[in-house]
Q: What sequence folds into this?
């Protein structure tokens, strides 16, 4: 059974750096085709994809946020970490991590999501 | 940059009725890379459909997906009380790597 859980601060000040950790179980981030992504969702709005890291260390970022994001993985700890610099009140949202699988030119969706962690940016 | 548009914004229906939700892409999307999600208040999105028409594990067969190119459809054949929620389409592979649509809310008439 695949599970993911996000952790990190619930409140950050403007201009600070946000660091979120996704701790997962039930799969290996060494397995071909596996990725872990970060998605955020401001209150009342649609989800917005932020970043994804693949099993082969390939990192992908949302073009509009790329300059502020870094995604890393620690396969020994089964963790993926997202850092977002220069936080602003508009970054207030629920942040999710999710498992993604692509194999043999087929993508199987973001099939398992964490419960999400709410981050508020305020002074 | 690819943009997904969903219509209608809100669909007001009664239990037992058929729901038809549309997702239109600004550029052609491979059917292999189009997914649909359901989200209820306070919950994470839940994968319903991947590859435009394949149901995810545990998804009832009243949910079906179809379409190709720039036009995709999610159909709920007979609405159950637990199906009233917001539905998002998502594409994978174009720039940006993932894009979500704005969502369609299915509420009780």
A:
């Amino acid at each position: 059974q695949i599970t993911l859980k996000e952790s990190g601060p619930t409140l950050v000040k403007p201009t600070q750096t946000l660091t979120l950790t996704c701790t997962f179980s039930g799969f290996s981030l060494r397995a071909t085709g596996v990725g872990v992504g970060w998605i955020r969702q401001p209150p009342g709005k649609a989800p917005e994809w932020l970043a994804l890291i693949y099993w082969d260390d390939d990192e992908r970022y949302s073009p509009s946020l790329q300059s502020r994001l870094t995604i890393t993985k620690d396969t020994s700890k089964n963790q993926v970490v997202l850092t977002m610099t220069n936080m602003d009140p508009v970054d207030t949202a629920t942040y999710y991590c999710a498992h993604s699988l692509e194999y043999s030119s087929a993508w199987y969706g973001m099939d398992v999501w964490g419960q999400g962690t709410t981050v508020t940016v305020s002074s | 940059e690819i943009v997904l548009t969903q219509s209608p914004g809100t669909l007001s229906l009664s239990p037992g009725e058929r729901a038809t939700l549309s997702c239109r892409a600004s550029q052609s999307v491979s059917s292999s890379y189009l997914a649909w999600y359901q989200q209820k208040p306070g919950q994470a999105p839940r994968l319903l459909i991947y590859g435009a028409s394949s149901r995810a594990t545990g998804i009832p067969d009243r949910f079906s997906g179809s379409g190709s190119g720039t036009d995709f459809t999610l159909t709920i054949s007979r609405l159950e009380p637990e199906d009233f929620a917001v539905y998002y389409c998502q594409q994978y592979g174009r720039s940006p790597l993932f894009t979500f649509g704005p969502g369609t809310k299915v509420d009780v008439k």
In short: The first strand of chain A starts at residue 3 and ends at 7.
